[in-house]
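Blinded run. Sample ID left blank on purpose so nobody reads anything into the name before looking at the predicted structure. Input follows.
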Amino acid sequence: MKISGGKARGRNIVAPRSDCIRITTNRLKESLFNIIGPLEGVHFLDLFAGTGNVGIEAMSRGAETVMFVEQRHLHAEVIRKNIQRCRFEECFEIITSSVEKAVPLLLNRREYFEVIFADPPYERGYVEKILNIPGIDQLLAEEGLFVVEHSVREECIHRGAFQLTKQRRYGDTVLTFFRSSSAVSRGGLS
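Blinded prediction complete.
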């Protein structure tokens, strides 16, 4: 597994020996970042971060800060090692917690992000749960993107606080893009 673009392009990152981790492929990452566009000055939130693969790619491509949320301590340590391997030892934070517990913490700290990326375990009901966590929409900056990676066998059409803007299918995986329905003015993509 390699970083595909930016300052750390070509650097290898590692994954723990674990059957409970699914890696976002390089092809999917490339498509994701082509759709998102430039990341200079962007605050990026990586939920269900796993190895940190996507968040580190964002760092490599110029994100100002990256926040990783990963519940498993082993995976959080792998994220830290991968960040060191790529020589990005500034402008990041790893929160070792469930997403449900991390959201109130981030809200309390008045954090917001231009890009939120979530890659929950496939086909376990997490997609709708994530989109319905109280206050999660308040973490998204005006004009920000909330991207969910999920299985084609899971519906991701939530309306509530988010407006679905597009979906892209890559084999058995779908990237679903949302924007905030309320678009509270707190900043935005530069």
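Unblinding after everyone has recorded impressions. Residues 51 and 77 are 9 Å apart (CA to CA).
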